[in-house]
TrEMBL record:
This is WRKY domain-containing protein. Pfam families: WRKY. The lineage of its organism: Eukaryota, Viridiplantae, Streptophyta, Embryophyta, Tracheophyta. PROSITE patterns: WRKY. Residues 210-276 form the WRKY domain. It comes from Setaria viridis (Green bristlegrass).
Length: 454
DNA sequence: CGCGTTTGACCGGCGC
DNA sequence: GCGCCGGTCAAACGCG
């Protein structure tokens, strides 16, 4: 959505723009605001452009006004100069105050926009599901509903035909996962096909400080390859989920080239089986992030803006990149606050979905794995020595994200898009939790600590 | 002996 | 068309 239209749509007092551009000593978000209030929005600024001149001694000034005031000052007497400087400084001070107020208003507008965006997304996805219902029906018998969202459900939905090896080798597998024909059955709606195609490619990258070779995210992984990636002296390891026979989920683990204490884990795909609670958090986060990417694939969507919109409280740790090859959500857990505080807080009161769009299953303890999060250091930059601690870190971080009401809205949208009207997820959820309670203790990742060679 | 890792080879996509 | 590079395969190997 165009920002100008957004402001108009939200009824923002557009006359603020000109003032905003006058000065922004704040800095970090300056580019956004300048762009926001650029002169390109003439139709929104033209009304106000005369006002600063009419009240040149008032609060509202812009760059031109400053220039006009400063240049004549050079010709003034030496005695008047300090006076004007003092006035200017006073004005600057007032402008700074106003700038802060405007920032607050901008934050409010952004919040409103987020809500609207999420609502729109939800409506769109609901509409899609009315067009193409029940693509998950084929999956449901295989893996009970409570598992994570089937964003990458195509392999799962085809698991009846794609028996056994999930290989994608051209020499051994004719049913390539990436083939559009495999994305959905003939009953599937075209728009959803496209959505799933994009979501299948979506990845979620988690950056976390860890001395361990991999982060324990609650799933079982089997290493199937290792490569030296260009531009990084550290090898990249490839893991495949082995909790189910044909689970399509893969992950890549690589240390950051700049800071080798940072472990970058990239998840791709969606599990087609029940997950341990410990894995649920990450998987759900992954799925929701993929859903966000879906929404970001809408035309003219600004992904960075989208990232801030979807994860407003996590903007410092979550970024969305649509740059090739795959759209990727990066969750940066290497930064402590502000999310560290959220991550370290007791995980029990996880605010989940707002009632209207919340599928029943997510009002259950879908993220019960987060309850394992006991490490007070979760989300901080302190390296955690054990895999369990890392699991806590990841889970707690995921809790921090999912606890964000805006994120849960996005999550609701994701669930709505995937599950649609399908409702009896709760039973499976409880089954799922029963199934995996024990596995959550063994942290279920690959036991081989030598898998990550340097 | 079974399971998981290692590692060189292979394949496909992409840029030039 | 060619080469680079990411991703995957599969035989070899190690470990319990």
């Amino acid at each position: 959505m165009d920002k100008g239209h957004l402001l108009a749509f939200l009824g923002l007092p557009l006359h603020l723009h000109g003032r905003m551009s006058a000065d922004d000593p704040g800095g970090s978000r300056r580019s956004v605001e300048v762009d926001f209030f650029s002169d390109d929005n003439k139709q929104t600024c033209v009304v106000e452009r005369d006002e600063p001149r009419a009240a040149s001694s008032g609060l509202a000034i812009n760059k031109e006004d400053l220039t006009i005031n400063l240049l004549p000052a050079a010709t003034h007497d030496e005695e008047t100069k300090p006076k004007e400087e003092v006035e200017l400084q006073a004005e600057l001070g007032r402008m700074n105050e106003e700038n802060h107020r405007l920032r607050g208003m901008l934050a409010q507008v952004t919040t409103s926009y987020q809500a609207l965006q999420m609502h729109l997304l939800t409506l769109m996805q609901q509409a899609q599901h009315q067009q193409a219902p029940a693509p998950l029906a084929a999956v449901a018998p295989i893996a009970p509903p409570p598992r994570q969202l089937q964003l990458d459900q195509q392999p799962a939905s085809n698991s009846s035909t794609e028996v056994g090896s999930p290989r994608r080798s051209s020499s051994t597998a004719n049913n390539k996962e990436d083939s559009p024909e495999a994305t959905g059955g003939p009953a599937e709606g075209r728009p959803q096909q496209l959505d799933q195609a994009s979501m299948r490619k979506a990845r979620v990258s988690v950056r976390a400080r860890s001395e361990a070779p991999i982060i324990a995210d609650g799933c079982q992984w089997r290493k199937y390859g290792q490569k030296m990636a260009k531009g990084n002296p550290c090898p990249r390891a490839y893991y495949r989920c082995t909790m189910a026979n044909a689970c399509p989920v893969r992950k890549q683990v690589q240390r950051c080239a700049d800071d080798r204490s940072i472990l970058i884990t990239t998840y791709e795909g969606t599990h087609n089986h029940p997950l341990p609670p410990a894995a649920m958090a990450m998987a759900s986060t992954t799925s929701a992030a993929a859903s966000m990417l879906l929404s970001g694939s809408m035309p003219s969507a600004d992904n960075s803006f989208l990232a801030r919109a979807v994860l407003p409280c996590s903007s410092s740790m979550a970024t969305i990149s649509a740059s090739a090859p795959f759209p990727t959500v990066t969750l940066d857990l290497t930064h402590g606050p502000p999310t560290a505080a959220a991550a370290a807080r007791p995980p029990a009161p996880l605010p989940l979905l707002p009632p209207p769009q919340a599928p029943p299953l997510y009002n259950q303890s879908k993220f019960s794995g987060l309850h394992m999060s006991s490490s007070p250091d979760a989300g901080t930059t302190t390296p955690l020595p054990t895999g369990i601690g890392l699991a806590d870190t990841v889970s707690a971080a995921a809790a921090a994200i999912t606890a964000d009401p805006n994120f849960t809205v996005a999550l609701a949208a994701a669930i709505t898009s995937i599950i649609g009207g399908g409702g009896q997820q709760q039973h499976g959820s409880s089954n799922n939790n029963n199934n995996v309670t024990s596995s959550s203790n063994n942290t279920a990742t690959s036991n081989n600590t030598n898998s990550e060679t340097q």
